[in-house]
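Lab notebook, page 48
Experiment: co-folding of the full assembly
Goal: obtain a model of how the components sit together before planning crosslinking
Operator: M.T.
Materials (sequences as entered):
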Amino acid sequence: MVIAAVLALAVGTYTMRLAGVVLADRLELSGSLQRLLPMAAAALLAALALTAALMEGSRFAGVARPAGVAVGALLAWRRAPFVVVVVAAAATTALLRLAGVP
Amino acid sequence: MRTAGRTKATDRALLRDAGAIALAMIAVGASFGAITIAYGLPTWIPFAMSTVVFAGGAQFLAVGLIAAGNPIAAVFAGLLLNARHLPFGLAVSDTVGTRWRDRLIGSHLMTDEVVAFTLAEKDPLRRRRVYWLIGITLFTSWNAGTALGVLLGGATGDPAALGLDAAFPAGLIALILPSLRDRQVRLVALAGAGIAVLATPVLPAGLPVLCALLGLGVLLLPRRWGGGTPEGAETAGDNPVGEREAAW
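Observation: model returned without errors.
Model output:
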């Protein structure tokens, strides 16, 4: 049963990944629709980032994580290198938790 | 015209970024491996999932539900969470390539981070290299991390104590920020992200992020509210995102 579940999840996930890649030129998308695709991807990525920053399951994630992400976002805004953004975000959150902030 | 020196410098920056995200993936992969073992699940499950499913969020969700004795829910929740890969695939299709071998392998490497890194790159040729380099790096580090977690069990430490849960959203924000300099992309992305956060308490995992696609609705609003037909669709080529960094 469990092996069937893992395989079903794998096959389903792979099918969705491949479907987008293959369908893109089968559909012969018009110019304006082509322009919408990266916008749709940006909306999905922004939603992933914001929900992961603010929420834990269906509840608010606390203070430490959003604060760390905010520090990272500010550094990214100031065009800091990617590594600096990621490390600063993690370090801020880790230090806040060390200090007892939830 | 790009000089060889500058190309080398951007390549070094890309490798450095890939290294940073690989380290984070090893740590989170290790926590996935350790959690699976802590749930008392057989050892083959984390290995099988990290190789054939290769989707972090869905894997954590699925092992939790499998451990709770509900494998069918694990499949449905995991697939719902991964449905975003279909629009991602549409967006990166040109980058993955037209050859079937590239499509069959490249599709499996598709993750949020790979898509974000790819869309952040403007040049089509470099884009292709970014996709494959980040994809292979993440696949390798995620599986290495999983193995580490299975071997070390609870000794891998708590990723929350390291603040890794803040590293991933911050990294995604850094990658999508240049594309947000385009006003329409910014409105769509912010509206979508807002809808997703508001929907998170009320909808099952996976659906809120898909609801972000409703953010495209702002394009239908009257022009002064940020809508109107997408401007410059014909001049934008295959990479409207991030192409207007200078036009903030």
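Interpretation: Chain B touches chain A through 105 residues (CB under 8 Å).
Next step: discuss with group before ordering constructs.
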